[in-house]
Amino acid sequence: MLGRIMDKPLLISSLLQHADFTSGDREIVTRTVEGPIHRYTYRDAHKRARQLAKALQALDVKLGDRIATMAWNTHRHFEIYYAVSGIGAVTHTLNPRLHSSQLTYIMNHAEDSFVFVDLNLVSLIENVADELRGLKGVIVMTDREHMPETGLSNVYCYEELIEGHSDDLTWPEFDEKTASSLCYTSGTTGNPKGALFSHRSTMIHAYASALPDVLHMGESEVILPVVPMFHVNAWGIPYGATMVGAKLVFPGPKLDGASIHELLVNEGVTLAAGVPTIWLMLLAHWRETSSNAPSLKRTVIGGSACPESMIREFQDDYGVEVRHAWGMTETSPLGAISIPKPSMTDETKRLRLQAKQGRPVFGVEMRITDDAGKPLPHDGKAFGDLQVRGPWVIDNYFKMEESEAHDAEGWFATGDVATIDPEGYMEITDRSKDVIKSGGEWISSIEIENLAMGHPDVAQAAVIGIPHPKWDERPLLVIVPAEGKTPSHAEMTAFLSDKLAKWCLPDDTVYIDALPLGATGKILKTELRAQFGDHQLPEA
Ligand code: AMP
To answer: What is the distance in A from the centroid of ligand 1 to the CA of 357?
Structure first.
């Protein structure tokens, strides 16, 4: 017997419509690409999103068409999210840090018909335009006054496009399983792969993300997503924040410590989200200028492991609670978040737990398995392949017939290696390909990196496996030293030796000016291996 409840589809347009109705005067603030701070309200955003939706319809954009964006976090990007998905087309966010060959591949694979591009990123589209099949037009996200000279054909000005249309539009209704946005993963092996989200998955993810023990979003919060809107939809914040009518602050292209600090203070930001690299820059700025942001209550840190030293500094020195989160493009991205339980009162243990990736967010099932796919115990010791399932986890990649990452029961293999403790906290010990195997035992490079980052003379650290005749592989510590410092290998060994088993200690330490980073800010271990793979380890 079925329940007698209306079969109303969960559609993304309803978020902005609701925010207009209930929190219409709540602000959305942007540091624009042109420079000045722009402010308006959810009501204004809804009006302009409907105008843009009409403009897209006039350009013959239809249900299912892929519309790309090459853009920073701004109010215009926010409007595009809602206008494109609102009429049943698919927002395809492009990462400006991608190599042009990858960009060409992705845009052709997605069959993008239009691309919205920010003023200072136009050259990236110019570089690949000749190779793009099926591109019908480029919309530059600015006003007439700032329109650049460009050799691109079929170029439109965003503000002119909007002005030409009224907001007389009722959002169409369609199946909630309709695709809404598309995001390609950084692609550690082979070509990048597309995660294609639906209205339904986005909406359920938005409900979950807003919960107090997840991102803690509500109308009284002022939220700064530093995480880019081209990286898994800024972790879904443009949807969740709209659902609750929170004030939104978009940082535009300026993500340095001073610029982020200015927004935090001037806008009274209470909640910010981003990858550890961003917070390293902010913390350095705070230390140099003896400043802080008194309004900031929480920061969500994910995308890479958040070192314990960073959690401690935020919490102890600045009174900002750190919420360490784990997720992937393939999981929309929220998978787990680390918040100590109310019963956990020991400060040292709480900190240790926060450095773990946390408990699954309701909606996500999680398990670890051995090489044969057999589930492993939740004892905090056994580590194996992390697998997930849930209503916002992909069931395959865009345009792929079969997925090697899914098993017969629908579990998705994340490529991460993790433990799960008896309290339900998951901890990533490595990416499968980054685990170092020494004498038949696994060594976690991430664990050593996190510990090494706690040394005052270390700015950044990475660990790679070096081939070893006896042990198969041994860890090499690669350090970006703090300015004017060069911690010796002996010093690092002494620092790490009471925190690691002796056989896990790196065999040597080398120094580098900057770690090679991929398009999404992750350390490119492949490049480090290429650079240091032949390094001669000292004899034991
Ligand atoms: P992406 O799809 O680019 O977001 O990358 C997802 C991958 O980033 C995950 O599979 C993890 O390897 C890594 N990752 C994300 N969050 C964390 C975290 N909190 N700690 C460690 N690794 C993380």
So the answer is: 10
pLDDT of residue 188: 46
Q: What is the pLDDT of residue 215?
A: 98
The Å distance, Cα 303 to ligand 1 centre, comes to: 4
- The residues annotated as belonging to the active site are 185, 330, 437, 442
Q: What is the pLDDT of residue 186?
A: 58
- Check if 326 has its Cβ closer than 6 Å to any atom of ligand 1: yes
Instruction: Detail the DSSP E strand segments found in 469-518.
Output: 472-481, 508-511
386 lines ligand 1 (CB under 6 A): no
The reported pLDDT for the residue numbered 98 is 77
The CA distance from 123 to 109, in Å, is 21
CA within 13 Å, CB half, 524: 15
- What domains sit in the chain, N to C, each tagged with a CATH number? 435-532 (3.30.300.30)
428 lines ligand 1 (CB under 6 A): yes
Cα angle 366-209-2, degrees, rounded to a multiple of 5: 75
Cβ-in-10-Å burial (0-12, 13-18, 19+) of 3 comes to: exposed
CA of 305, closest atom in ligand 1: 20
Ranges of the chain with pLDDT below 70: 186-190, 431-435, 437, 439-442, 540
Ligand 1, atom 4, residue with closest C-alpha: 328
DSSP letters of 153-216?
SSEEEHHHHHHTS-S--PPP---TTSEEEEEE---SSSS--EEEEEHHHHHHHHHHHHSTTTT-
CA 333 to ligand 1 centroid distance, Å: 9
> Residue 302 C-alpha to ligand 1 middle, in angstroms?
7
What are the respective helix, strand and coil percentages of the chain, to the nearest 5?
A: 35, 25, 40
pLDDT at res. 431: 67
User: Average per-residue pLDDT in the chain?
Assistant: 93
- The pLDDT value recorded for residue 467 is 78
Cβ(414) – ligand 1 distance below 6 Å: yes
**CB-ligand 1 contact for 350 (6 Å cutoff):** no
H or E, element range at 360: strand 359-360
**Res 114: pLDDT:** 98
Burial class (CB in 10 A: 0-12, 13-18, 19+), 108: middle
CA-wise closest residue to 179 among 424, 399, 450: 399
What's the pLDDT score for residue 199? 98
Tokens matching residue 397: 């990649």
Residue nearest to atom 1 of ligand 1 (CA): 328
What's the rounded Cα separation, in Å, for the pair 83 and 158? 13
Q: How much of the chain exceeds pLDDT 70, in percent?
A: 97
* 186 Cβ inside 6 Å of ligand 1: yes
Residue 303 CB–ligand 1 contact under 6 Å: yes
Q: Residue 496: count other Cβ atoms within 10 Å of its Cβ.
A: 19
- The closest-lying atom of ligand 1 relative to the alpha carbon of residue 232 is 4
- The reported pLDDT for the residue numbered 187 is 42
